[in-house]
Structures are given as C-alpha cells and as structure tokens.
Write a sequence for this structure.
C-alpha cells in the first residue's frame, strides 16, 4: 500500500551501466564503501533493480530537527533540484551509530544544531548548493540517510568546504558509515 | 536489505481467521474503519499476507518527541509487552493529517507535550497499561502510527479513561483517521 501523502516522495538511486549521471568516483569516508559503477539513475518509487550494481532507497518527509524559524530561513534561500546549471552532484549515504539512535530528541537536537550548527553552517551555501534528504532507516535500508546535493561546476569548491565543515562537527562522531559518490550529468535536466 | 539495528523491530498485525488474539470489536473513531475479522496475529517482520482480511505494518524505533528526563521517567514505570495477566489489548492505528506533517519539529513538540501533555497524561497509567509504538509513515502504510496497548481486565476502565483524555487533546485535532481494534488473548503469552 502506498497512499499519496504530500511531502512524502520515494526515490531509488540505482548504480549500474546506465543512467543520466556519470559516476566520477565512489569514495569510502567512514567504514565500508560501495562498489564502483559507471552510471547512476534516480528513479521515483522504491524499486528493486536486479541488474544494478547497487540500489539505495529513501523517502523524503518530515524534518526531524528544524524549527519554524529555521525552516522559514531555509525556504527563502534554498534552490530546487534540477537546475540546468547544476551539472555536478554528490550522493552521500550515511549511517549513524547505535549511540546516536539511543539518544532522546532533545539530546539529538542539541548535538545537531546547538553544538554542531548543521543548519546554520549550511545556510551560507544556499542557494548555490541544492539539497534533498531521504530517510532510509524505517525502511530497513543499510543507510539511515541519503543526501543528494546538486551544484554548478563553479560552486564545487564551496561544496567541498561545506562537507569539510560538517564532517568536523560533533554530530559526525556518530556517523559510522559514510560513502561519497560524485557524479556529472550528461543529459539535460529531466525535472 | 534488512540489517539488524538495535531498537528497530518490524511487526505486522494480521487480521483474519487465525491468531492468538480474538477480535472483540473494530470501531471507526475518525474516518474510514477497517473490515471486521475474527482473530488477530502479531508477526515479526514486514509480512505480506495474501489470505488476511487486513495487515498493518510498522517499525519500532527512535522516539520523535521524548526528552531524556521524560524517557527516564517512562523507563522507570513502563511494563513490558507480554505480561501473563495482560489478556486485554487494543490496536489503535492512527493517521495524522497534512497540516500536522507540515509543522516543524518545535511546533509538533509544542502541541504534543507542552499543550496536549501526551506523555504526562499517560504517566499515571503506567505500569498498568503496557504500550508499544510502531511507525508506518516512512513505509508508505495507510496509518502513520500503530499503537498496541496491553492490560489486565481490571485495568480496562483506566485504559478507557486514558484514551478519552488523549482524544480530547489539541494533538488529536490533527488525527484524520483512527480505528480502535479490541482484542482478548486466548492462548498463553508467547513472549
């Protein structure tokens, strides 16, 4: 059963021989990597792909930490996915460890924003870097989060700076697996 | 893929001709009901049951609103599922409306606890009423939450009182579908 719910969108990232995005590199940041592949496609729905090198699934939905004030500030600055100039992208699957998931909501929020400034650090990189977050934990996926970032080649250095900042935070001490998949779009934007 | 993660347990509630729990009644509280059936089984895993009257799936996991202080107080008082004396139970599937899911975390927490006192109101009913919460929204299920309550027959009146209190809260104005499934156990506790 899959009733339509606003804000809830299902996506499957499929790595294999075909796809609009050429895979430039697959790098393990923390823990086990993912196998190399030539191309990446992004499919709507939670798809099982039998001839894929790998397929990762996630659903978009409710933000778990963002306040209304932060959401308003983000909404004013953020870019949509699929801008014609955003031909570079990164798919960054991460898993957080059991210690993270044993924390309560107030403890996770304190680490996420009060001490790691996840949202505040990201803000200066908007609107250049577009972002879509997908949740996989409830689905039983190997990664808790899949974040998809898109940007123009001229913003690639800014993106590296943002990643470097996030990876240095207290929040990132709870990440026990992270892979960094870089891709380049070779066909016009589909959406 | 379904890697084992502490705290994440999958359950399927299957209504049909068999099962350890006899269904005493299926009552629509808000919106569309579920079909009547004779018995209910609780299976581990996200199961597809072809001969079921209905099957509802959910995963346990991270609490979304509870603070550490609240979690500590709850942990001191709560009972496990499967007590021998807890022969009465209720499965209460609910869905919250789009307005709820468009709220930010701080707004949802304010309604859930600061104004509706969901945790504080429930506390006096522990340890008599045991409870397990399952999330279905990320799974694409028709209900966002399945709550399973278990209690001894002598605590049935207290349970009705708790339900009446929760249904009168501001939080409940965001519920757009709720069904109340009452069951009685007819075999010894399995776990």
């Amino acid at each position: 059963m899959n009733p339509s719910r606003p804000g809830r969108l299902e996506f499957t990232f499929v790595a294999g021989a075909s796809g609009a995005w050429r895979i430039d590199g697959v790098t393990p940041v923390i823990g086990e990597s993912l196998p190399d592949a030539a191309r990446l496609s992004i499919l709507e729905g939670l798809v099982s792909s039998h001839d894929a090198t790998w397929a990762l699934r996630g659903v978009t939905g409710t933000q778990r930490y963002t306040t209304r004030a932060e959401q308003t500030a983000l909404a004013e600055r953020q870019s949509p996915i699929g801008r014609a100039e955003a031909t570079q992208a990164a798919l960054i699957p991460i898993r957080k460890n059991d210690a993270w998931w044993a924390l309560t909501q107030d403890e996770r929020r304190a680490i996420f924003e009060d001490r790691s400034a996840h949202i505040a650090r990201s803000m200066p990189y908007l609107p250049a870097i577009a972002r879509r977050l997908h949740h996989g934990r409830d689905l039983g996926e190997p990664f808790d989060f899949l974040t998809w970032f898109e940007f123009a080649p001229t913003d690639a250095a800014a993106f590296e700076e943002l990643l470097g900042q996030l990876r240095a935070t207290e929040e990132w001490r709870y990440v026990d697996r992270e892979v960094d998949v870089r891709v380049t779009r070779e066909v016009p934007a589909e959406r």
Notes: The two ends of chain A are 26 Å apart (CA to CA). Chain A has one domain: 10-185.
